[in-house]
Specification:
mainly alpha, Hypothetical protein af1432, two-stranded antiparallel ribbon, 28 helices, rod-shaped
Length: about 675
C-alpha cells in the first residue's frame, strides 16, 4: 500500500493516458477515405500516385446512364398470342358466307373464295395481329410466345390495322365479284378480324430488369503498382475517372475483423505515442505540473476538447473544418501555464488531427503557423486589445497561408473560394470565447489565470479594503512590496502579475493582531513590551497561519495562498530570538522559526526578498545609497546562506539582477528632496 501511495500520481497519469488514447481513437470518424484532395481541371499537386492495389475502373455516371438507357430501349418486347382467334375469325366468316349461299352462286367459286380468305386470315394470324400499337421502332426486336416456343420478329413484322387493310386491298381485287363486291368484302373482313397479340408488359419489364442487371458499372482494371497520375498532370478525362474510382473504393472498402484489429492497433499506437511525448515533456521540463494530477488532467481535457470538436465537424460536414478554433488550445494553456507548454500541446493536438482531416499537409501548415503566432502574441490576454490583436493576427495568417497554397496549386488567384475566408473569420470570432472558457475552467479546476489576477489586484476589493482599514501600515507596506516585486519580476522574466497580487495579499494575516506589528503602531506604544519574547514570536509567526485561514475564507486561489505560506520560509524571528536568548541562553531556535515551506518558485522567492528588504529599509536612519546597498546585500546573502532559495528555480545571476533592481528602486523611494524655505 505504501508503494501504491508513493506512485499513485504515476498510476493516475498512466490511466489518464490510456483513457485519452481510447477516447481519441473512438471519436475518429470513418477513416476509409482517399487522403488526397483534387478537383477536375486542376493540376495534381502531390507526388506521382501508383495504384496501391488492383481495382476495376468505374464508369462515370453519364456514360453509365446512357448505357442503361440504351439497354432499356433496345431490350425486346414480349407479346402473348391467342391461337384460337384465327379459328374463331374463320368460323365467323364461314357463317357469314353460308348465309349468302343460293342456287345462283357457283359452289366452286364459293369454295375458291373461302380458300383465298382462309389464306389471308392465316397470313395475318401466323405472325400475329396487334390492334393497340406500342411506342417502339419498326426495327425493334419482339418475341412472340406460342404454346411451346418463342419466336423472334421485329416490330415491323407484326400486323397492325393499317397493315391489315393494305394486305386486304392487295388481295381482294376480283376474288368475290359474283358473291361480294370489293367494298362489301373488305368491310366484312375488317369487321371480323380481331387482334390475337397482347403486349406482355410484366414479362417485358422483368426482361429489361434482367438486362440492366447485366450492365457492368466498371470497365477495365488498374493493376497494382500501375501509375495513375504524375505530379503536375491535369486531373481530367480517364485520370479523373480512375481517381474517382479509387476514392470510392476507399469509401466503400470493408474490413475483415483481422484487418480492422490491425488498423485499430495502428491508431492506438500512434495516438498513444503522441500523448506519451506530452507526458514525457511534462516529466522532464514541467515537474511541478507533472506532479499535480489536476493540472495534467486539465491539459489533456483541453486537447481532447479540440479533437472531439474537430472530429464531430468532420463527421457532419468536412467543409467547416476551419471554423473550429484549434488555436484556442495554446491560448488557454498559455494563460494558465506558459507559452512553451502551450505550443507543445498544440503540436501534439494537430498531429493527432492530421489523421482525420482531409488535405492534412495544408491543414498542418496552417494550424502550425497560427499556433506559433498565438504563442508569440502578447502574454497579457486579460487586456481586451491584446486578445483582439491576437485573433486578428491568426486570421491574417490563415488568409496569407490560404492565398499561398491557392497560388501554388492553381498558378493564380482567380476563382478562389470566398467561403473559405468566411470560415477563417468565424474561427477568429469563436476564439473570443476564450474569456468565458477561462472563467469556467478557473471555477472547475481551481486554477488561476492572468484575468483573475487582474481582478484580484484591484485594491478596492473587499479583502484589501479591510486590510487598509484594520492595518493601514501593513496595507501601505504591501503596496510598496508589490511595486518592488513587480519591477523585479519584469527584469528577470517572471510572472509580474502573479507576484504583484501575491505581494498585495501576503500579509493579510496581520489583520488579526494589527497593533503587534510596528508598521501599524502609530501611537508609539509597543504591546510586545508587556509580553514574553516567546509569546511575541508566536504572534508574529502566526500571521502566516492566520493569513492562510483568511485567504481560504475569501476563496483566494491556492497560487496566491502559496505566497502567504512561503514569504518568510523557515527563517527565524531574529529580534525576539536574540531577546529571549539574553534571558535564557538554552532557548530552542525552533520556537522562533516560521513553519515554512521555503519558496518554491521564482515568484515566491522574489516576494520573500522584496518583503524583507522593504521592511528592513524602514529602519535605516538617514538612508543613503551606500546604506541601502549594504542593507540589500546583507539581507539577500543571509537568505541565500540559510538555504531559503534551494527549492526555487532561481539562479545566482538572477539574484544579482534582483539586488541591482531593488537598490535602484529603494534609492528612488528614499531620494533626498531639496528643503523648501518656510
Amino acid at each position: 500500500m505504501n508503494n501504491l501511495y508513493n506512485y499513485q500520481n504515476i498510476i493516475y497519469v498512466v490511466i489518464l493516458l490510456c483513457f485519452c488514447t481510447a477516447l481519441t481513437v473512438y471519436v475518429f470518424p470513418n477513416n476509409n477515405r482517399f487522403k488526397y484532395d483534387y478537383n477536375q481541371g486542376e493540376p495534381w499537386d502531390y507526388e506521382t500516385l501508383y495504384a496501391p492495389f488492383s481495382f476495376p475502373i468505374e464508369k462515370d455516371e453519364k456514360s453509365l446512364l446512357v448505357e442503361r438507357e440504351y439497354v432499356s430501349e433496345s431490350a425486346p418486347r414480349y407479346f402473348k398470342i391467342d391461337q384460337t382467334v384465327e379459328d374463331n375469325v374463320f368460323n365467323k366468316w364461314s357463317t357469314r358466307i353460308n348465309s349468302k349461299r343460293n342456287d345462283s352462286i357457283d359452289l366452286n367459286e364459293l369454295r375458291s373464295l373461302n380458300n383465298k380468305i382462309k389464306n389471308i386470315i392465316s397470313t395475318i394470324y401466323d405472325i400475329g395481329y396487334l390492334e393497340m400499337p406500342v411506342d417502339i421502332k419498326e426495327s425493334h426486336p419482339v418475341l412472340v410466345e406460342y404454346d411451346t416456343e418463342v419466336i423472334a420478329y421485329t416490330y415491323g413484322d407484326l400486323y397492325k390495322p393499317a397493315n391489315v387493310e393494305e394486305l386486304l386491298n392487295g388481295r381482294m381485287d376480283g376474288i368475290g365479284v359474283n358473291i361480294f363486291d370489293n367494298n362489301e368484302l373488305l368491310s366484312s373482313l375488317l369487321e371480323l378480324i380481331t387482334p390475337n397479340l397482347i403486349y406482355d408488359r410484366e414479362l417485358t419489364d422483368l426482361a429489361i430488369k434482367e438486362e440492366l442487371n447485366k450492365v457492368l458499372s466498371t470497365r477495365g482494371v488498374v493493376s497494382e503498382g500501375a501509375r495513375i497520375i504524375a505530379q503536375g498532370e491535369i486531373v481530367e478525362g480517364e485520370k479523373l475517372q480512375v481517381l474517382n474510382t479509387l476514392n470510392n473504393t476507399y469509401k466503400s472498402q470493408t474490413w475483415t475483423e483481422s484487418q480492422y484489429a490491425w488498423k485499430l492497433s495502428g491508431y492506438i499506437i500512434l495516438v498513444g505515442m503522441a500523448y506519451t511525448m506530452l507526458i514525457l515533456f511534462l516529466w522532464r521540463y514541467r515537474k511541478s505540473i507533472f506532479e499535480n494530477f489536476r493540472k495534467v488532467f486539465f491539459i489533456f481535457f483541453n486537447i481532447l476538447m479540440v479533437i472531439v470538436l474537430t472530429a464531430a465537424v468532420v463527421t457532419i460536414d468536412v467543409q467547416y473544418i476551419y471554423v473550429v478554433p484549434v488555436c484556442i488550445l495554446p491560448l488557454i494553456l498559455k494563460a494558465f501555464f506558459d507559452a512553451r507548454l502551450g505550443l507543445f500541446s498544440h503540436v501534439i493536438a494537430i498531429f493527432i488531427l492530421s489523421f482525420i482531416v482531409p488535405n492534412s499537409d495544408e491543414y498542418l501548415f496552417l494550424q502550425m503557423m497560427a499556433g506559433i503566432v498565438t504563442i508569440l502574441s502578447n502574454n497579457e490576454i486579460y487586456k481586451r486589445a491584446n486578445l483582439f490583436l491576437t485573433v486578428a493576427q491568426i486570421i491574417g495568417i490563415y488568409f496569407l497561408s490560404y492565398f499561398a497554397f491557392y497560388a501554388i496549386n492553381q498558378g493564380g488567384v482567380v476563382g478562389w473560394e470566398w467561403s473559405r475566408l468566411a470560415y477563417f473569420m468565424l474561427c477568429g470570432l469563436a476564439m473570443l470565447f476564450v474569456w468565458p472558457l477561462i472563467y469556467i475552467f478557473e471555477k472547475i479546476f481551481g486554477l488561476v489565470s492572468d484575468v483573475s489576477l487582474l481582478e484580484l489586484s484591484d485594491t478596492n476589493s473587499k479583502l484589501l479594503k479591510q486590510l487598509s482599514n484594520k492595518a493601514p501600515g501593513t496595507f501601505h507596506h504591501s503596496l510598496n512590496v508589490a511595486n518592488i516585486a513587480e519591477t523585479v519580476a519584469n527584469e528577470i522574466g517572471a510572472n509580474a502579475m502573479l507576484v504583484r497580487v501575491g505581494a498585495l495579499y501576503h500579509d493579510i494575516g496581520k489583520m488579526s493582531n494589527p497593533t503587534y506589528f510596528t508598521e501599524n503602531q502609530g501611537s508609539g506604544i509597543n504591546p510586545h513590551n508587556d509580553l514574553d519574547p516567546v509569546d511575541s514570536a508566536r504572534i508574529i509567526i502566526d500571521h502566516t497561519l492566520n493569513g492562510i485561514e483568511i485567504a481560504r475564507k475569501y476563496n483566494l486561489p491556492d497560487r496566491i495562498i502559496d505566497f502567504i505560506r512561503t514569504h518568510h520560509g523557515n527563517s527565524l524571528v531574529y529580534y525576539f530570538y536574540v531577546k529571549a536568548k539574553e534571558e535564557n541562553p538554552d532557548i530552542a531556535k525552533d520556537n522562533f522559526r516560521y513553519p515554512g515551506p521555503k519558496p518554491f518558485s521564482q515568484e515566491t522567492a522574489i516576494l520573500m526578498i522584496a518583503d524583507s528588504v522593504e521592511a528592513a529599509s524602514k529602519s535605516i536612519q538617514n538612508p543613503t545609497s551606500i546604506k541601502i546597498d549594504a542593507l540589500v546585500n546583507k539581507i539577500i546573502e543571509g537568505q541565500v546562506d540559510s538555504g531559503q532559495f534551494l527549492n526555487a528555480n532561481i539562479t545566482f545571476k538572477q539574484i544579482e539582477t534582483i539586488k541591482a533592481v531593488i537598490k535602484k528602486k529603494l534609492a528612488s523611494i528614499y531620494h533626498l528632496r531639496i528643503e523648501y524655505p518656510e
